[in-house]
Design brief:
The protein has 112 residues and is of the alpha+beta class. Helix content is 55%, strand content 12%. Strand 1 (2-8) and strand 2 (11-17) form a beta hairpin. Helix 1 crosses helix 2 (46-66). The longest helix is centred in the last third of the chain and has 23 residues, at 85-107.
Length: 112
């Protein structure tokens, strides 16, 4: 366990946290301190600052819960073929013809 000192609303608070969590907890405290500063309640009594911080954080959470859930992005549209279908068919026929010629040459056929 690590002990850290947090400053919130102009007051210092000692807090124990898990080892390695010091920076994260300090950052959270800074966020709360910033909220209290924007609300103008810094220097109030501790219970009053706690009340304001709780209300502001609850309001943020409420707003986040009211948002519609994030939707996954739509799948990508199928890619357009690089060549028109008629060209692909003609190319396939030419490839077949070349393969037939190559086979005849390998077989030693005189009609190649």
């Amino acid at each position: 366990m690590a002990n850290i000192t947090l400053t919130i609303g102009g007051r210092e608070f000692m807090l124990a946290c898990a080892d390695g969590e010091e920076a994260h907890v300090t950052k959270l405290a800074a966020m709360i301190d910033e909220k209290l500063g924007h609300a103008g309640v810094v220097g109030q009594t501790e219970p009053r600052m706690l009340l304001f911080a709780s209300l502001m954080l609850a309001d943020e959470l409420h707003e986040l819960r009211q948002r519609p859930p994030l939707q996954p992005p739509p799948p990508p549209a199928p890619a357009e073929p690089a060549f028109p279908p008629a060209f692909v068919e003609k190319l396939a026929k030419i490839a077949d013809h070349v393969e037939n010629l190559a086979q005849r040459l390998e077989d030693g056929s005189p009609n190649a």
